[in-house]
Structure prediction request, 301 residues.
Amino acid sequence: MLSLENLLVEFDAGRPRGLARAITRAESGDGASLMRSLYARTGRALTIGLTGPPGVGKSTLTSALVKKARSLDKSVGVISVDPSSPFSHGALLGDRIRLTEHFVDPKVFIRSMAARGHLGGVSGATGDAVLLMDAFGLDVIIVETVGVGQSEIEIAELAQSTLVALQPGSGDSIQVLKAGIMEIADIFVVNKADHPMANQLKREIRSMMEILQYGAWVPELAMTQALEGTGIDELWSAIERHRAYLFESGEIVRKRRAAFDHQVRQLALGKLQHRLDAAIAAHPDLSIDPYAASERILAEF
Ligand SMILES: Nc1nc2c(ncn2[C@@H]2O[C@H](COP(=O)(O)OP(=O)(O)OP(=O)(O)O)[C@@H](O)[C@H]2O)c(=O)[nH]1
Ligand SMILES: [Mg+2]
Prediction:
């Protein structure tokens, strides 16, 4: 592996290869050495989490948002947590063509990551990747996670603005309500808005929103056709309004604190789990009961 010093030289020089290698290093479990020198540089980027059910158009939306950000001359980082995403596997020709356009753009850095089952979850290596992209100086960072399981909830802990994408005519809204994703949305995106049931989905979201007690920020709802790029300007404006709200209200400070706490908790839990497993393995003592054994092990910590 490239030495840390050489990696940091490449990183500091703004070479994408330096960033790529830093993320690989973090993925392989050595985020600590990088964060020691790079963490102080974080906190500048606009971070967007984009989640939603499979096939709703998250990658297409991401691609459209990248295009929008680039038109504003902002550099962009994309992290695709879903391994089946076109970003990693090139599922669809249309998406591939769009992405190829971004692949050759030196101001766009695209990375796909596996959603790992381990304790770090999305906030493990993905959290590191967000921080590294931020430290690298990318202006906008978009994290796409597929909306099944814990990952979409976790993304809300890391991102400043969480976008929940839904598509009409699929029963999505009920799924979302069940999974508790409703609560994490800063902005709802009804994609494939050309669908005849788009307005019905919009009404369903609005009526679900009435059940929830929102604070100062009431989620916005954007209608998009990601393939054509329709509604992307409005979506971008909603993202900017949310960001402005975060800064004007001071909520951004609380969000940063929450993201920090979340990552610290995940890291600490991961380490504890390791030590605990080792301690349990070292005490195969069946002569005492499980309660007594757990007390004995904890007493060693
Ligand atoms: N009609 C229509 N189709 C769309 C729109 N946006 C995306 N699609 C199509 O929907 C399909 C899924 O799009 P993706 O962007 O891959 O969806 P995804 O949510 O990233 O999918 P996963 O990552 O697999 O969960 C593709 O065939 C897209 O071309 C839209 O606005 N209208
Ligand atoms: Mg995708």
